[in-house]
Every structure is written in C-alpha cells, then in structure tokens.
Amino acid sequence: MFINHDYIEDILEQGKETSMDEIHEILKKARSKQGLTHLEVAKLIQTDTEEANEAIFKIAGEIKQEIYGNRVVIFAPLYVSNYCVNSCTYCGYGRDNDFKRRKLTDAEIQEEVKLLESMGHKRIALEVGEDPVNCDIDYVCHAIDTIYATENKNGNIRRINVNIAATTVEEYKMLKEREIGTYILFQETYHKPTYEQVHPKCLKGDYDYHLTAFDRAMQADIDDVGGGVLFGLADYKFELMGLMLHNDHLEEAFGVGFHTISVPRLQKAEGMNLSDYPNLVTDDEFKRIVAIIRLAVPFTGIILSTRESAGMRKEVLNYGVSQVSAGSCTGVGGYKEEAEFGKKVDQFEVADHRTPLEIIKELLRDGFIPSYCTACYRSGRTGDRFMRLAKSGQIHNVCQPNALMTLQEFALDYGDTELKELVENVINKEVVNIGKANIKELTQVNLEKIKNGERDLYV
Ligand code: SAM
Question: Which of 104, 191, 329, 392 would bridge 108 by S-S if both were Cys, CB 3.0 to 4.6 A apart?
C-alpha cells in the first residue's frame, strides 16, 4: 500500500536536526513552485523554530500571492442526511448518538437551497452520513439533480462538490454522470492504528478501502478529487507526510494529484470530549500545517471551513488557504432552522458564525477578492488540464476576471450600499491588472452586461 508507516517514521526521523541553511535552501526550491521531496517536507515539519517559521510563512505567503492572487473562493456545506451506520468516535452523527435521524425530502432540499442562494452561494459541498439503506446512491444522485434544478430569482447552484463515504467505481460513475465538481473525502487519519481505533467495528473501519477511494473515483473518470485529514486524531507530522504520499500516488497512477486539500481541525461534537484526544493541534501548529502544504503542493487548493474562528481564518488566508466556507450550518435542515429558530445541535460545532455578507465585506476590507466562480469545470478545465493551466501561470487570466464578474453579480443581487461600494472600488482597481488584452476587454464588456441584468458570464 502507498502509505508505508515505516517509511514515514524513518523520513521524519531523518528530517530532525536540520540547519537553518538547509531550511533556506529548501525554501528557495519551494519558492520556484516546483514542489518538494518527502525529505524536504519532513525537514520543514521538524524544524519548529521561530526563525524557520518566519521564513516558512514568508515564502508560503509569496507563493500564495503569485498563484492565487488575492482571490478567495467562497462555498457552503449542505447536509441532506444524518443517517449513519458508522461509529466514528469523534463525530456527532455516530450511530450510537441517540437523536432522531432524518434525510431531507425534495421540498426540504429546495427550501435549503433557496436559502443558500439567497445568501449568494453558487458552490456547495454536499454532505451526508454513511448509510447504504437510508441514504443510498440513488438518493444522493436525486439530491444533486434537485439542487441543480432549484433556482431563486437570479440565484442558482453552479457547482456541487460531493463529500460522501468511500464507495465503488459503479457508484462513482453515477456521481460523475451528475456533473459533480470535486469528489471530496477526508482520510481522517493516515495512521492505521489510530484509524482503526477511531472507527471501531463499522463500515468505515476498513483503512485500505477508505484509502483507495480516490483510485476508484479516478477509475470512474472523476478527475478532481479533494483529500484531507481531520487534524487532532494522530500526530500532525505523520498526517502531513501521509498527505504527501497520497498525492504522489495519485500523480503517479493517474497523472494528477489532489485538486484540493482540506484542513479540518477536530471540534467538540455530541458524544465526544476533546480531552480524550491527545493529538490536538495548537494554533501555531495549525498555521505551520497550512504553510507547509502550500510550499509542498503549490498548485493544490487549500480549503478551510467555519470550524476555525474569524481570526484564524484571516491569518491562514495569507499563508495558503484558497477556499473558505461562509455562513455554514452543519445540521440537516440547518439553514431553515437557523432562519426560523437560531442555532441547534449539529455534526460538530462551528466557530465562525458570521453571515456571508459580513464575511465578504471583511475579506474586501482586508484586500481579498471573494470569488463565486465555478467556471473551471464547466469549461472542461479539470484534472490535469486544470493543473497545466495553473502551472503555466495562465490561470490568472481566467480566475481574476471570473472572480470579479461573480463578485459583481453577488453585489448586485445580494449586497447593500456598503458592499456595492467596496466591490466597485475593487473592480476599478483590479481590472487594470488583468494581463491579456482581449480578456481584459471581454471582462469590461461582461461587467457592464451583468449590471444590465445578464448572469453567469465567465471566461
Ligand atoms: N460520511 C462521509 C465520510 O464517511 O467520509 C463524510 C461526511 S462528514 C459529514 C464530513 C467530515 O466531517 C468528516 O469526514 C470528518 O472529517 C468531519 N468531522 C466529523 N466529526 C468532526 C468533528 N468533531 N470536528 C471536526 N470535523 C469533524
């Protein structure tokens, strides 16, 4: 199997006692955006000094800026079923937690989607617990169709990333046919003994089957896959190496690695206590995790959720995060319940409770460009085609105009006076920076068209 525990432990051992000169050499290589070897990553991980961290954050920030500019992609999760046959010790949906399970009807899905659309969302991550009987693949596929078909005034969902449990090639083919965006699955932990301990006696407990899920997804022609680790279960150093090995395996076997990496940190949930988990990562370690991923796999998006506080989200956007969720509910039917009654018990607790409008305004004030763009996969820019464009640096020529166009759409449809002003300022400033003359011209024309009522324009 491609996650060799002895190899990871050995390479982490070799990474110890690295000099600052070596760190600077590694960072020089990282700066040229060619990625890093396992040993180089291990050396960065093992050198947790103030001087090294400062240098790591600086270079990660420069890479982030060069590849992603100030853009931040916005999304929201949508939970449609909390039936679950698993016993993940850390999860509020675990089968032993006693609460009334349910899945949304078509009408309820439509209600949730309309609420998300009224917040301006265009991109969602579809989330379900694992239950092959109560929430089978037909239900998931039907939910996807329903979501894509639900519109609210100018609002529609243009990209559905799907986070369902590891499954078969046949079922991944069904997802592919639904035109999903990225198939997302967190390994939770690459450390097999920990994996087996936190998934006792359940379907998800098969480490190898879970680990090879992306192989099956790619065999089914899903070419954008998003990995992740639930940080806090096992030693974060081991997990970072696990992510690297997994990414390399996909690159070798299928020619393209992770499209995105998610970095969820363990939160308090129903039926579990954080004090039972000895490997929780500190805020400082978390920042290092984000920065080291950015250095090691510069072209892979990094996704951050509202599990993190507003302050932490703002900071790690500078070191590498490229996508954030906004206004999230992690309960089934949560958007309606929140609209009607306020918060309630969810899969886990979130730390950032601001509305998307508040988040967008703050991002703009901090110099970021929130993007609701979903153009890539709709234009066939997926898998290695996306990676080639990203690596050539040409990505700016499509991402920047698309970010500005979708931001203008958001401001016109969902913004107040303050937001409209912030957006107008950013557009005036940023259109100037679009490189290719023909694309700059097209962007200007499209921005006018959007003002006049047209929607969903992109390059
Ligand atoms: N059921 C799907 C599976 O088996 O992969 C995944 C969907 S689950 C709704 C999404 C993710 O939430 C999980 O993969 C896990 O990493 C994360 N999660 C579960 N409990 C959590 C907790 N207490 N704190 C933070 N994240 C948690």
Answer: 104
